[in-house]
Amino acid sequence: METPVNILAIVGSYRKEGIIERAVDEILASARERGAVTRKITLLDKRLAFCTNCRSCTQVAGENYGVCILDDDMAALLQEIEGADCLVLASPMNAGTVTAIMKTFIERLVCTAYWPWGSPAPKARRPGKSKRAVLVASSAAPGILARLTGDVTKRLKSAATMLGAETVGTLFIGLAAQQQHQELSKGTIHKAHKLGHKLAAGSSTKLN
Ligand SMILES: Cc1cc2nc3c(=O)[nH]c(=O)nc-3n(C[C@H](O)[C@H](O)[C@H](O)COP(=O)(O)O)c2cc1C
Question: Which domains are delineated in the chain?
Fold first, then answer.
């Protein structure tokens, strides 16, 4: 029997049941329909401290992610990420970029680089891309405007790259703040399902 594709979603929304969480749920449900195993982590439920820029996690060379001095949930989160074949990285656009909690998570990914003191820039410990990622973002502004003026997908894509994942699709939901409990449009649900099927199937053709 084939090993099922293992998909991990990391959600940076502040609202349970918000647009982002529901879009991610649609992606994961459709991936499960095609035999994938899925898990969703909401960053809000985790203890994640700010990176202190001590850089101790970047000093030792090698493929293993550096060890952080902070005792919180990041190490366990990285372990789950290592076990996943695919990632879904999701965040609303707040103040033009990812949410503060998603940014906190992304800053902690500095441990994926080797950057000893004296060296001008970090180097990826694992430059290859063995995983696949789908990005999910939402904004109050129309999607096209938000993508032009903000950098949420750029930040999520860069996080995917740091985690060794090739971005194979993006779901950007514009006009997402018109009502307190806004429904996902049919078009959004359709695209979410396509992305879920794609992750479960292991295809790497882009869908943007
Ligand atoms: C503090 C804050 C800042 C926001 N900044 C922006 C923004 O810069 N541009 C934008 O289009 N929407 C902005 N929004 C709207 C959110 O993107 C929108 O409510 C969110 O995508 C909905 O996702 P959720 O349902 O998962 O919470 C902001 C919302 C909040 C609360």
Answer: 6-53+66-107+129-201 (3.40.50.360)
